[in-house]
Amino acid sequence: MIRDGRSRKVVFVSHCIINTNAIAIGPKTPNIWPAMIDEIVDCLKKNRVSIIQLPCPEQIYYGLIRGRAAKNDMDNPSFRKLCKKIAEETINNIEQYMKNNFRVVAFIGRRGSPTCGVNKTHVRKNDKIIEENGMGILIEEISKIIKDKRIEIPLIDFEREEKAQFIKQLERLIKTLNKKN
Question: Comparing C-alpha atoms, which of 13, 33, 38, 41 is closest to residue 138?
Answer without folding.
Answer: 13
